[in-house]
Design a protein that fits this description.
single chain, alpha/beta, globular
Amino acid sequence: MSSSKKGQIESAKIVIGEVFSRFWFRIPDYQRAYVWGKDEISELIDDVNYASEHNPEGQYFLGSMVLRKATRTTDGVSFEEYELLDGQQRLTTLMLMLACIRDRVTDDKLKAACREMLFQEENKWKKIPGRNRIVYDIRDNVGTFIESYIKTDGGSQSPDLVGIAASKNLSLSNMAAGLQTIHASIDDTTRFPSEADFDRFVGYLLNNALFIYVSTEDLDDAFRLFTILNDRGIPLSNSDILKAKNLGAISKDSERTKWAEYWEEVEGEMGRDEFDRFLSLVRTIYVKDKAREGLLKEFDERIYGSKPPLLALGSDTFEAVRAYKDAFDQAIQFDDLPTALGNEYRNRINVMRKGLPSTDWIPPVLAWYRKFKAEKLLNLIECIDNKFSADWILQLTPTQRISNMNDVLKAIDGAKVPADVLDSKVFEFDGKQLAVLLDGAIYGRRFAKYVLLRLEYLLASHAAPLNLPDEISVEHILPQTPSATSQWVKDFTEEQRECWLHRLGNLMLLSRRKNTSLGNLDYADKRVRYFEDRVESLPNSQRLLATTAFALPDLENRHKDLLDRLANSYGAKQ
């Protein structure tokens, strides 16, 4: 414990079981809503479960909590309460998990333990007030939701949650969907084949998963600590430590000097953070599995510590980093890329980098380029783009998407010629279900912008690079709130507007921020005043300018045309 100018600063490691028995939390009203979704929740469960199976005596670090300590009085009883400045998303997710575990298990002691971690029952004879472990000052009626679905036995399995998850109330919809995701995850027999596996997971979660918390009584100190924690990684670069370890394994002075200079040159070019991210891509190429630990530990235990080692310390590591950095520069950054690949390849990569949710598709590209150079590279990119984007649209979890890309890496590793990879089954996906999803309401879905970017690529001539603006937005053609006297209301019934509003045929990309007032104009005016100067570099959106009217038949024809183009582009591997 150390002192500050205005009070005491306390910091320590604390496991989840203690977090939910020692502290009482308040989420202040300036915090944002709960925003975690299926990806974040399922990934947390997968990671904790993996740690419980492969390192049962170890600890799993969940992150940091920054707290402001205060004293509150309820019904004449004073108690310490902690205002949570950082860590709300994880802490709320853990609260949801405790409710689901309580409702999933039959063990009375575990049920009771979960209840005690979620709330304290009132006992007026002992002057113990009833209170929830986490109190939310934020709007959205979170308190009412907690009373009904978190505190109440069986509440996390209520059929009401389906409707709440579909509501427009951000915190409540995400919490309701979160409860459904957690139950689907813990009821998954692939993830937990037996009750013993689930019991192991719960025991590990409560006793081995931990936070580091920092608390102070002064709000200014608390925010300062928050900033320090977020910036703490800057002085200690993974790339610096990895460089030192590998230089230490080289005995020849000239060799050490050569690699030290190369490393510093690359780090200076990319920047520390970007270089660390690149090294994570290299790690994936060798391990072919999801990262479970920090970058340094992954290299130490899963690359150098593998039997036999996947890569040797010293010159072998430097040679590998250089080879994949060259592949990255050429295949991803287009430096000295063979001219035979042309703009079609460059445009595809740019759409993928701009539209896909992560860079987990890049390691197979680098592995291919190191092995086969530019041979059939565009074919590979098409297959990877199809598989990765389809997995994402089909709502596979990040862990599943990463696993599928690792299968591609394994196929490349074992291939003698490009056809061995391109003709394999690693790129297969459910094309029928994909078509169903793309035909439905996609506005507001994370993949909507990517789908529209892909259409810009499919409609580009590739005679020149596709100039995708930095600032880009998804816009409705038929507006969400047309005027009662507008042509839109004459051309579309209310049922037709409801059916078509959020579907592909009614969506387009704009190269500038949307303007709601202009967005509600009738089509003839909207086309000229709103669309014309915002689609100059977007081929699919430009095509709309040739349409002088946009009634139901026009929308239906556009929708079918765009779906057909997408279907053809995904058609190779279904």
